[in-house]
Fold these 2 entries.
Entry 1:
Amino acid sequence: MILMIGVGYGCVQKIDKVVVPTDTAIVEAPPLRQWDTVRKEFWTAMLFTQLSNMPRVRDRFQPKHLHLMVRCAIKEYERIMEIDYFEKTFGKVNGTLSPQDAQLAYNITYQCSEKQAKLQRDEILKLQSEGLLLKDTI
């Protein structure tokens, strides 16, 4: 019995009460990385040009939706890395990427392309369901 009390007493630790703030203070998120606007537009144009020169991509996306997909990808790159690192890693002239960077580029591009393809499909279906107006015909 005494052994049980000793073990129970030895295992109990004093824990300080956690103080939870009662005010409605706003928790600030870490600031987003902001790329220089000119450099960001440059890389948006470069990625758009590279992708628009691929026949399979041209077949899949209308120019408007390809541009929106590229903007999504650049926004994701901006969210996860600094512009200098992006230019050193993905802006190489010879185009060789490490397997990890190639996988990252694939994942970002795939995610944005799937999202934009769905928006494009929805837009096309909406236009088809509305039909042509008389004023839009020849």
Note: The helical segments are 2-11, 37-52, 55-60, 63-80, 83-90, 99-130.
Entry 2:
Amino acid sequence: MKRRGFLLKDMSILLFFSALVRAFFAFTCLNFFASAMNLRLFDSAHVWLYRSAITAAILGGVLELIAGFMGALYCEEPLLVHRCIAWGAAALIFGLAANVMQIIVGYGASAYVWLSGVAVPAVYILGAIRLRRTVKQ
């Protein structure tokens, strides 16, 4: 018999480590952006889009860290799982926004970025919803 909340706990751990890697890449992009601005490599019309993409990536990474921590904390508490759903939804929205903006900016889309920014938070939310359903049954 599987333990209750196993999917939420597993996805929380994956989300936590994924967020660390995404935050590292976001800060790397931020350093590149700052260097490129000093060298005037970007035109001023698209500067706000670059800044928005990097900001959304950093905020998405921070929200994924918080959601991962809360999921691991509340994986055995079905009555408090609504907090995990809210944090997971926020991480999913910022992850999706960062991915779309990176495509518009021209960074492209890699499989890892879509997995860590969209797929992992979506499965995390699914695990939280499954845990919440155990209370209703």
Note: DSSP finds four helices and no strands in the chain.
